[in-house]
Amino acid sequence: MRDKNKPGLRFYTPSAGAQLRAAMSRAHERGVEWSRIEEILHDKEGREAAEAIRLLDGLKALPTSPDDYIDDVPAAPSLDEKREAWMRLNQTFK
């Protein structure tokens, strides 16, 4: 492609495949798992490469430390709560 400002100069525009590979590398460097990248690539058949690149650049890494996860499971009962429950069971079945 010719540069409009300098007629003798040409510049290189990367192909769609090269841009897609660069987006994959950027996503992986941010910590995105390859399986998530492959999901977008397999779903790419119905869309253009530019849209797939935009989706890859929008991916965020999943949290890796236990502090980042939201724990929806209730905490285990304390020893006193367990003892109290056993006492109620024993009284019920006597």
Task: Name a few traits of the molecule.
mainly alpha; rod-shaped; 50% helix; single chain; 0% strand; 4 helices; 94 residues
Written description of the protein model:
The chain has helices at residues 16-29, 34-42, 49-58, 79-92. By secondary structure, it is an all-alpha fold. It is rod-shaped. 50% of the residues lie in helices and 0% in strands. The longest helix has 14 residues, at 16-29. It is built from 4 helices and no strands. It has a domain at 1-63.
Distance between the termini: 91 Å
**Radius of gyration from the CA trace?**
28 Å
Number of strands: 0
Tell me the strand percentage band: under 5%
N-to-C order of helices and strands: HHHH
**Number of helix segments?**
4
Output mean pLDDT.
76
Structural class: mainly alpha
What coarse outline follows from CA principal-axis ratios? rod-shaped
Q: Helix fraction?
A: 40-55%
Characterize the biggest β-sheet. none
Task: Extract low-pLDDT stretches.
Answer: none
Task: Please give a quick description of this structure.
This protein has 94 residues and is mostly helical.
What's the layout of helices and strands?
Blueprint: H1 16-29, H2 34-42, H3 49-58, H4 79-92
Helix pairs in contact: 1-3
